[in-house]
From TrEMBL, chains A, B:
Residues 2-48 form the HTH cro/C1-type domain. It holds the Pfam family LacI. It comes from the Bacteria. InterPro entries: Cro/C1-type_HTH, HTH_LacI, LacI/GalR-like_sensor, Lambda_DNA-bd_dom_sf, Peripla_BP_I. Residues 4-58 form the HTH lacI-type domain. The keyword Cell division does not apply. CDD domains: HTH_LacI (cd01392), PBP1_MalR-like (cd06294). This is LacI family DNA-binding transcriptional regulator. It comes from Tepidibacter hydrothermalis. One of its GO terms (molecular function) is DNA binding. Keywords: DNA-binding, Transcription, Transcription regulation. Gene3D superfamilies: 3.40.50.2300, lambda repressor-like DNA-binding domains. The keyword DNA-binding applies.
Amino acid sequence: MKSITIKDVAQRAGVSPSTVSRVISKDARISENTKKKVLEIMDELNYYPNSIARRLANKKTDTIGVVMPYGTEDVLMNPFFQESLRGISIVSSDKCYDILISTSHKNEDEIDVLRCLIKGNRVDGLILTRSNENDEAIKYLRDNKFPFVLIGSCLEYDDITSVDNDNEKASYELTSFLIEKGRKKIAFIGGELHSVVIKNRFEGYKKALKDNNIEFKNEYLIFDKFLEESGYNLTDKLLNLDDIPDAIIVADDLMSLGAMKKIKEKNYKVPEDIMLASFNNSILAKYSNPSITSIDINSTELGKRACEKLFSILEGNESELKKEIISHKIIERDSTKSI
Amino acid sequence: MKSITIKDVAQRAGVSPSTVSRVISKDARISENTKKKVLEIMDELNYYPNSIARRLANKKTDTIGVVMPYGTEDVLMNPFFQESLRGISIVSSDKCYDILISTSHKNEDEIDVLRCLIKGNRVDGLILTRSNENDEAIKYLRDNKFPFVLIGSCLEYDDITSVDNDNEKASYELTSFLIEKGRKKIAFIGGELHSVVIKNRFEGYKKALKDNNIEFKNEYLIFDKFLEESGYNLTDKLLNLDDIPDAIIVADDLMSLGAMKKIKEKNYKVPEDIMLASFNNSILAKYSNPSITSIDINSTELGKRACEKLFSILEGNESELKKEIISHKIIERDSTKSI
DNA sequence: CTGTTAGCGCATTCAT
DNA sequence: ATGAATGCGCTAACAG
């Protein structure tokens, strides 16, 4: 499939390649006549500029990369990532930018993936959809001064552009909410242990307990991946304790479905025996049975704003504030209804 | 950020650029010595080949494009597309290929988007996640002999490589299933009117009615987009009929959630008053209240196989069969439980 | 306003 | 086994 080049168009139109190039890039200083002529030929020949060649010449890819935590495969099951991806997609689509999903290869070093993306000139900028403590990826991107935006927060540096919720506050509110409902044995099921989101949510939980003079019990605290299966398995541990909790806060909706399943299997009732409250307010929480109280963190908005901030950086308008906080809200549902 | 080129490495290693290039592309005929030396320098300089330049020289992008129906934004809300995307991601990640999500710009002609993708040399191949009757996109790709695989079926040509379920059969089974449960007033809520999936599912439904001597009623048949909202609105119409249905088949889980919501609002009971059965068996169907009987179509597998077939084409092994059928299975849940 | 020239970084003949 | 030269298709600096 031999493709038509700018040369073909130029020849056919009786002008030079650069003139055609100028028409393509809408250069002002070009006569209406030749412009019209060139456009005609382009249409006639069904010509379309080769984006690769263009990128090489421009040193610009018109592509933004999205980096997910651990295996994209697992992550794409989680509504939070799906929704933030959607937000990113909406904004980038508007700017006619492509999205490159970093399909991080399982056992590969993540830094390698980033290096490949950056040094390989595959993307103009990146959006990281997660952050860990001492995140090597963040350090790498920062060291290399590569444009990126974080969905989440960075603890180590304060010059990282990021979009996040106030997860500590949200978690504090959610915990207090359960305490007001009369629950005192509140367990916390986290996601990835070293992720900052989880850390924040855990802090809020702990603080709320403390402010209400409730003893924090280590066995009520467990972590694993953001998967339904993890929620299921972790809850099993909780329900095998001598003193089982009367409420569980789960750091993610998908996990809370797993938790719910296990609770039912063990013949406990939600909310009577155990109240369940969760984060992210995905569609899953809404339609689960019973429906699950969840913190709406505006996942799509997180993605949108992250992408908008990335474009600001790419366009050189880095005037905006570095750290942006997206609002959250408790959406109360049946899983925490007092009877 | 000036990047290191193959030249820099060559100079530092005291060899010519072409030698370095050969090392990179693992050319056999190169001495172990120089090879080792070059690799060392590459590591030392933290060199990484520029993928853009590489692509231009190779005329190959190592990227596959995924085309969604109408606005990517809406579609990314639907679990079916999320899951098939996940399948695609799993396979392409394995091959170290990038995935480009065609962020189809709302009002733009879809063919324009494709042309931009193809003539612009942005992707090596495409996966279409939907098919319509007289699908212009399919025609365009076929006419241009561009490598692509369809998730779905094409009615007009039989030389299109595709992966699909036997949707007519699945729908026939599902409808028969409801009839066996004693329901006779079965409505059908479709998705996009002109999509082949919906057409097939509708055919199966109609056939089952006929084989069971049940009259097909036109007012029991309605269509709209694959969105929760659509399911909600369409169900409203059904429930405003003089003779409301006692069962509804919905062509998609997300839509069925909307349907469920409306049914509840109108104070009907599922399954007692109205049975609900759906397609795609996403996590939503499983956790909905009541849980929804749904046809498991193996969405992730559809994506995986589509991607594998695309790679076969790209690698020139087009030996496989053109049309592949993925199995399906009715997953029975509470929404159709006889009392 | 337009043409000429020289890259962008890599791969690939064709020599040696 | 390696180097030199040329081209992938487009852009941009410099002329005119």
